Amino acid sequence: MTPEDRYRYTKGGVKLAILGTFVFGIYLAVNSMGETETAAYRTLDECLEDGKFGPDDCKNSFETARAEHLKNAPSYQNREDCEEEFGNGHCEVTSSVHVAGGGHYSPYQSGYLIGQPETSANGVYYPAVPASALYESSHASGFVNAAGQLVTNKVGGFKMTYSDGARFSPDVRTTTLARSGFGTRHSSAS
Fold it and tell me: In Å, what is the CA distance from 43 to each residue of 47, 55, 61, 110?
């Protein structure tokens, strides 16, 4: 085999490997997407009364969402900024376990998200859409998540598109907002 033949042979193999990797990546992306039955409830009792999910699922999802809220709810330097976003009387002092620490302000948890179990690993089912705390912003009609993104505009069940990445909680970044003169906002992410 001449050096030129070896070069063409190797070049063809590299192209084939790249093409194969690309096709496999597309296959994984398409098969990791899905739609699942999800619901948003204001209270644990609403979930139990609805009957879409079992009592244990309702309770576990509520507790998971509450723990997330205590640690990762949006936080603000003062009550006025929090109430501007979430309404008068809808904010509380952050807990000592919050990533921003105590002494800041966060909105009250207005509800929580619950999803049907979709995947089993070693006999344990994981929801395609993890339980999470929901909030009602003055600037959006419906429930928003801790990042301020609209999740749903209704209470009860709905279909939600997910990807496999949704099964794993991402690193949570919180934002603490403060005002300094003439209504200017400064923010810092942690």
Answer: 7, 13, 11, 8
